[in-house]
Amino acid sequence: MNTYGYARVSSSDQNLGRQIQELTKFGIPENKIFCDKKSGKDFERKEYTRVLADLKKFSPPTLSKSPKITTESVSL
């Protein structure tokens, strides 16, 4: 099974560490975690685009945004 993670913060002065740590607790290897430091309203995010392109190659995944998992869990 191919497992990917996506972490994002809105600005470059914010830290992705906690999100990455949570994703690795779910068993996602760090080399499969894509990260962006850019506003969520902008979908022109480099790593977001990369992870979506990779996901299209495999069966439908479930994605969730760690800090707001109760409000922003999405199944593709």
How would you characterize this protein structure?
With 76 residues, this protein is of the alpha+beta class. The protein contains 2 helices and 4 strands; from the N terminus they run E-H-E-H-E-E. The strands form 2 sheets. Strands 1-2 form a two-stranded parallel ribbon. The chain has a two-stranded antiparallel sheet with strand order 3-4. Helix 1 links the parallel strand 1 and strand 2. The chain is flat, with a radius of gyration of 12 Å. 11% of the residues are buried. The C terminus is likely disordered.
Task: Supply the key terms.
flat; disordered C terminus; 76 residues; two-stranded parallel sheet; single chain; alpha+beta
How does the helix and strand content classify structurally? alpha+beta
Beta content: 15-25%
**Sequence of strands across the biggest β-sheet:** 1-2
What is the residue-mean pLDDT, rounded to a whole number?
A: 77
Radius of gyration: 12 Å
Helices and strands, in order, run as EHEHEE
Number of helices: 2
Spans where pLDDT lies below 50 across 5 or more residues: 68-76
* Major sheet characteristics: 2 strands, parallel
Q: N-to-C terminal Cα separation, in Å?
A: 16 Å
Overall geometry comes to flat
The helix content, as a percent range, equals 25-40%
